[in-house]
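Why show two proteins at once? Because comparison is the fastest way to build intuition. When a single record is shown, students tend to memorize it. When two are placed side by side, the eye starts asking what differs. So, the first record is below.
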Amino acid sequence: MTTIGWALAARSATERRAVVCEAVFALLAEAGYDRMTMDAVAARAHVSKATLYRTWPDKPQLVAEALAYHFKDTWIPADTGSLRGDLLAVMNVACEASASVHGGVVAGVMTAAARNPALASTLREAIYESKHVIHETVVRRAVDRGEVRADTDPHLLHEVLHAMVLSRRLELGGPLDERFAEHVVDDVLLPVLTRDRT
């Protein structure tokens, strides 16, 4: 057995999955979903195709796990002391992520997800559902400060922010910069969250 072969054999199942998921994400960034192949993943991760197919029978399942692995951590913003400050912090991080390689991978997978319900479900969980705690935290702080009503729905913040960033990334093509973040916060999010609903 070669040196690489011994090293691979010594890996735990968890380590092998991590290596494969990293290889998938790198290939998605380089080639896109449609041009990424199981053969290329096996070569990049230094695993046999048989090993790959035993764990992931097809490409959508493999990509779904790679997305779940890559986006598993959720950042919680520091308390800035104001709703506007918290919203700007969240917007800036969302814009940076969307403009990065991560955003490019997500954008590329979205087309495939429209044709594959399981992939779509994983994509939604990875980039939306698991991140909802961020928006719940921001709204809870604002309620505690008396900046918004107690019945303010964090889902409203999440939906509007997500839609604005995604639209900018996929359709409008403008810069996801500080000016855009301030526009969304001052002209959209704050008016929506603080409007009088009586």
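Second record. Ask yourself what differs from the first in the token line.
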Amino acid sequence: MKKFAFIFLVLVAGVLFFFSYNFQIFENPCGNEILSESTNPNGLTKAVIFQRDCGATTGFSTQVSILKSKEDLKNKGGNIFVADTNHGEAPSGIGGGPKVDVEWLSQNELKIFYHPKARTYTKSSSLNGIQIIYEEIEK
């Protein structure tokens, strides 16, 4: 009987996880605040710098996503760059996470500037034909 109860509980937990993950039954505790947007030279793509906060148990992070110019930022993490201040080692910017800047070098090349002491979690080198270059700056 104990084995049946355990299996039943595991199945119920699995079903709840599946539905909550795939159909977002439970509210997402995270939120994004756009800090800046920069459109590439042909106007079809933009880089969005935003601060992401997932509640009291996590610190602020600065993230970057590349989107189509008319696309809205969804409540998801950055698709090319994610960093935090590494417990205050890097100075924080206006959103609470480390200061990050971007510059379009061409329509298919984006440069991201960030502090060398920032802790990076995501640092993609390309996305959808756009090459991403990184430069550490102490400012």
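One difference worth noting in the second protein: DSSP finds one helix and nine strands in the chain.
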